Amino acid sequence: MSKVTKVVIPAAGLGTRFLPATKAQPKEMLPVVDKPAIQYVIEEAIRNSLTNILVVTGRGKRSIEDHFDQSFELEQLLVESGRQNELELVRAISTLGNIHYIRQGRPLGLGHAVLAAKAHVGTEPFVTMLADDIMTEDSDLLQEMLKLHHRTGFSVLSLMEVPREQIRLYGCAEVKTAADGTLHVASVVEKPEPSEAPSTLAITGRYLFTPEIFTAIENTPSGKNGEFQLTDAIAELSRTQPVLGVVFQRGRYDIGDKLEYLRAVVEMALMREDIGPAFAAELRAIMAREFQES
């Protein structure tokens, strides 16, 4: 079985949940400590040997391309000022992987964004990673998904248990456990009401697809606002071949949510050896002052 090397990162969304911060900059470029969110996603891909990267963009996303391109003027300035550490950081960004770009055109949903990658992917299996979801460096989720695909040849979804009242925010998967412990996705539904959800397993922002997902998207009618839902296409795909799941519990931040974004900034700053201890001291001082004043 051929090795999976291609990854598709949809990045054409408007980021309306973060207005006004995203009025003139892509949500994917919002900083988490000192790196834009999408850089964490691409670094995760590279760690898992996914070196052929396609970013699906739209209008107003040029800064994503600029970020991963070389900046000769900036590099020259850093050379002349003797700032070697910063120079190495900047140069490393432009050599992360083989990054390509394509525009989605009309914003017709996540399924439509994945379909835009059809010509690039061809007949190979590939990973789709949402730029809204970033994982901690010690996460083995993607590695487990790749292993399961290599063993079976089937598509794999990342699944996370969430409180029932939150399942309406996600695609939801009902699973059945095979004799060998493998989770088979029996059904999926997009953002169900909690009382109607078949489970509390949420589909999160890591997918490993066989190329047949493109046919499934093409055979899936559009839904609300003319958008093509990826969850509906997954349901279509599961009618012709097995779709599997990997459940994980930790290491994920949904930075499309304001509170989750702030949690990501705080926790990932605390994990850093260079600023973590000093930042922890600042947080303790802030909390002591807040409790004293209250």
TrEMBL record:
<keyword id="KW-0808">Transferase</keyword>
<dbReference type="InterPro" id="IPR029044">
    <property type="entry name" value="Nucleotide-diphossugar_trans"/>
</dbReference>
<keyword id="KW-0548">Nucleotidyltransferase</keyword>
<dbReference type="GO" id="GO:0006011">
    <property type="term" value="P:UDP-alpha-D-glucose metabolic process"/>
</dbReference>
<dbReference type="GO" id="GO:0003983">
    <property type="term" value="F:UTP:glucose-1-phosphate uridylyltransferase activity"/>
</dbReference>
<dbReference type="InterPro" id="IPR005835">
    <property type="entry name" value="NTP_transferase_dom"/>
</dbReference>
<dbReference type="Pfam" id="PF00483">
    <property type="entry name" value="NTP_transferase"/>
</dbReference>
<protein>
    <recommendedName>
        <fullName>UTP--glucose-1-phosphate uridylyltransferase</fullName>
        <ecNumber>2.7.7.9</ecNumber>
    </recommendedName>
</protein>
<feature type="domain" description="Nucleotidyl transferase">
    <location>
        <begin position="6"/>
        <end position="265"/>
    </location>
</feature>
<dbReference type="InterPro" id="IPR005771">
    <property type="entry name" value="GalU_uridylyltTrfase_bac/arc"/>
</dbReference>
<comment type="similarity">
    <text>Belongs to the UDPGP type 2 family.</text>
</comment>
